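G., before I forget:
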Amino acid sequence: MKPMKSIKRIAAGVVAVATMTGMAACGSSSDSGSDTATKSSGPVEIEVWSWDKNGQNGVDAFNKSQNEVKVKFVLQASNTAIQQNFRNAFEAKSKLPDYVQGFAPLTTNVANGWAEDITDTIKPILPYYTDGAKKNVELDGKYYGLPGVAAGTFGVVNTDVLAKYGVDAPKTWDDVLALGEKMKADGGTVMNLAGEDPSGFMQMAEAAGAQWFSTKGDSWVVDLQDEGTQKAIDVIQQLIDGDMVSNQTYQDRPALYNYFDSGKLGLLTMAYWSSTGYKTNMPNTSGKWEAIPFPQFSEGETKIPGILSQVAFIPKGTSKEHQEAVMKWVKWQCTPEGYEATFRDPETKSIGVPAGYTDKTNFDMDKYVDESVPDNFYSNDDEAKKIILDASQNVMGGFDLGPDYDAWFPELQDQWGKAVAKQITLKEAIANVQKFIVSDLKSKGINVKEA
Amino acid sequence: MADSKVTSGGTSGGSSHVPWRIIQAAKGASFVVPFFCGFVFFVIIPIVMSFRVVVYAKQKSGLGLGEAKETFVGLANLIKAAQDTTFWVGFGRVALYGIIMVPVTQFLSMVMALLIDSVKAKTAGKFRILLLLPYMTPGVVQTIIWIYLYSPTTSPFRWTGINFFDSNMVWFSMGQMAVWAGLGFNMLIMYGSLQSIPGEVIEAARLDGASEVRIAFSIKVPYMVSSVTFTTLFAVIGTLQLFDQPYFFRSISPQTITKDFTPAMMIYNQAFQVGNINYATALSLLLALVLCIASIGVYALQGKVNKV
């Protein structure tokens, strides 16, 4: 459906912004003896785990900029490596870092007992983040992670396709369906639904107001069949039944780009960071993609979905003093010089668009958005910049992925694959996933109710 | 000084010496120390630990936030695993796959070994390396190679009109990858056994007028029985633990290759995605039991063949 393969890829890909927000903090707390020592003898030393290969640069700049906190940066080989290393350290009850770059959703971090409740110490940095970014790290009224967002999703439509059928760019999903009907007659498809990637469907559901997981008292309420989800199901089922979609897999990139570039595809949903790859690999249609806001379920709405599945956190047991040190580091990243030092790649000079931040950061957003737009990919760069800016500032947050995301997401992939292949309907598929989630939570002893 | 004399003299035959044979044996054994350490740390110790892990289960309560409590559940995990139809259906799949794939791979490996054995040593050397290359290629690289070989867009075989990514072609495509990857290793082991055939036996057969085909079937193949058994055993074990190929195809044909498609995939899912190490361990022990039975079966078959 969109260039991201899975939710994990969304967060991993770009946006260091989301997870890196705090790429700064992480010294393990735990060591109360050393805490006392550091109080009297110098800066508080914290340890940060991250897989950002340029992370050391930002840490060096921060360490030079002040004397209160000294960050020790520990580079991890990859997202997978940081997850394995943290799990191993946690299970072995060895010394944990003070800050870990995100590798799992918020509730997973809390459910596994990894993340510390940082409600008391997070206050100094909250004004720098949007409501969406804050909602992404809040559970049951408490903060368990460093604020962040996934890059907001928007669309691009092939202007040749629009001209051929004499239509305007779609604003709603009804418009998308109408365009799909027209394209089908000529063997084209309005969208691509990869059989392995249900993330686009999840985003549609989020935009339609779905909330799959919520808490009521000491029980989870699981509702994958609410009105919002049903709206998304209806649209996608019509696309599938009407043969209006292709099913190119992200595993086979050459074939995927080849199809996207063939002129047979009408609409792509994407995040801004995908544009460089598209421009490189889609020479025939480069310059013909008109950026549009994410299609809405009703005209006049302005929902920008984005589901954050990798939340940076402070490990359980980290002392208040170290938590505060982490916050100082994260707060520094919310300054223009801190953001530049932390996220600008010294080799390529590239940098992500800050997302989920408020004006209080004083970031020069226009500069970052300008840099994110490659030459000759969008049909109208100025319009694209407006949409990217909007997506980075107003992306939604708070779509809880529940305490067993790692268990149910593969099940969703299985069921989604069957629905896309027309073996079952999407409604049946989602009902199966809900059944799976309820059963899985019960088997783990977790209280659960179906809405 | 006196001590050192005794020590140095000891090696040359004094009464307090360490016998020469023992020294030689110790030297020989030292070569296996690295392997032995790895075997102990990465096989024996985990197996011992698994017997503890399997009798516990992690349970949560309420919203399930925070660390789970570990409780003793006895054989509950093993009983649940034994009754898990998804797991046994997965076994059924790999068994069917193995019934076709193992003989095909073994037959092709045997043919390759015989062909290489029949050419000059220099030529044989070149082919040995060529055939072994896929086996030496890392899994990730193999995957990339096959993506391009199978891709409807980039495949050099697209002129055939076959879509190797089609869900109906998944088994064939996976089998082809497995044969490609396993052929070289099997061939090398079989070829090694052919090298141990005394030259005079072959020569005598030729003098008696036996054709090359007759020599192959009547002399070479019987000599290969033990190596065929060995490679068959590995092939059976590999098949029952089938993971790489279906994992690769999961993205391409998710409606067919589900997360629990093979026993190994189910164990992986339980251990690293669901996070239920206890149950994954129970499934692993069952898999080990099946592998053990299959291995005994293969050796029993070899025994019968040898008697014949």
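The interface with chain B takes residues 107, 110-113, 139-140, 195-196, 215, 218-220, 249-252, 254-255, 258, 403-404, 406-407, 409-411, 413-414, 416-418, 420-421, 423, 440-441, 444-447 of chain A (CB under 8 Å). The longest strand of chain A covers residues 44-50.

More on Monday.
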